[in-house]
Amino acid sequence: xxxxxxxxxxxxxxxxxxxxxxxxxxxxxxxxxxxxxxxxxxxxxxxxxxxxxxxxxxxxxxxxxxxxxxxxxxxxxxxxxxxxxxxxxxxxxxxxxxxxxxxxxxxxxxxxxxxxxxxxxxxxxxxxxxxxxxxxxxxxxxxxxxxxxxxxxxxxxxxxxxxxxxxxxxxxxxxxxxxxxxxxxxxxxxxxxxxxxxxxxxxxxxxxxxxxxxxxxxxxxxxxxxxxxxxxxxxxxxxxxxxxxxxxxxxxxxxxxxxxxxxxxxxxxxxxxxxxxxxxxxxxxxxxxxxxxxxxxxxxxxxxxxxxxxxxxxxxxxxxxxxxxxxxxxxxxxxxxxxxxxxxxxxxxxxxxxxxxxxxxxxxxxxxxxxxxxxxxxxxxxxxxxxxxxxxxxxxxxxxxxxxxxxxxxxxxxx
Length: 415
Description:
By secondary structure, this protein is an alpha+beta fold. It has eleven helices and 14 strands. The protein has a five-stranded mixed barrel. It has a four-stranded antiparallel sheet with strand order 11-12-13-14, covered by helices on one side. Strands 8-9-10 form a three-stranded mixed sheet, with helices on both faces.
């Protein structure tokens, strides 16, 4: 989400993460920071640290000197010094935490010249700033078309206008050195502004654009990662991962940065294991290494005459066999040292999932609805029984009347 998402309100509540403006990080941004000292006052006799960290588009940040000692808070839109003109950004950090951020990045006020904060952005500054943001997408597509016309092997991935619209920065990636002097002339004629070309790496490009990784989370390079270290396939080998480029590569096309996260833990655990090039000598023959479970302390070996039969051994058993081999002793067979697999106790209850029909609760006569008051003939057994009883009573009375010589009701009606 962009930094302007929280400004889009529906029914009085900000859109976006639904925190209603109480997230403490000024919206959903890239490389967000939380100012946990914002509510603490400076002790008496001390001055506040007059430097602020300002955030620009797609995670670009810089430090500025608050020469006018303005009261600036997180989320304030300010106009800062640029070359040439001025730029517009958002304050993302202020106070003593800025000093800690400078120390973390090796920047010290006494050895560095900082640009100044001009003022809080007025209405005109914000209108120009938003107008520049609206032009950036079209400018990027046009620049890509110009690069294709000139036959330049480069990819323009992002465009950023300065707050006063006097300069536009074009970010691009290229595998080789590119002569873009002709491209700059075309861009300057098309956009009537100063053009600056800035080359970035593949990982920096992914960090600026953002995205969702294969783990289902946002990319590390676009949320918190700023130190882009080189990643080699050795890290994947130490972690027993298959060297599949499609699975090990990230959205930038390079190896995933997360391969380095757990590498130190794997290296510490691998120190416990013996050299995998050493075979186990037995009277049946030599057994060679197949695979291992690092955190389970298990190793699998197989004989040369039957390489498809993997025999599981614990790490202690393997070390025990190697010690015996070192003394010149051979074991009968490594199956004698096979790890004992605990038999899983089966539960006493039976699993009846899938045995019942899923349609057993469906109404089979759902489509045979009849109108109220209309019943099928003979549908009610009580009515049928009553009608049958009445008919038998009439026939019995008729027979009794005939015996007594009394005419029936039907004969009287005919006379």
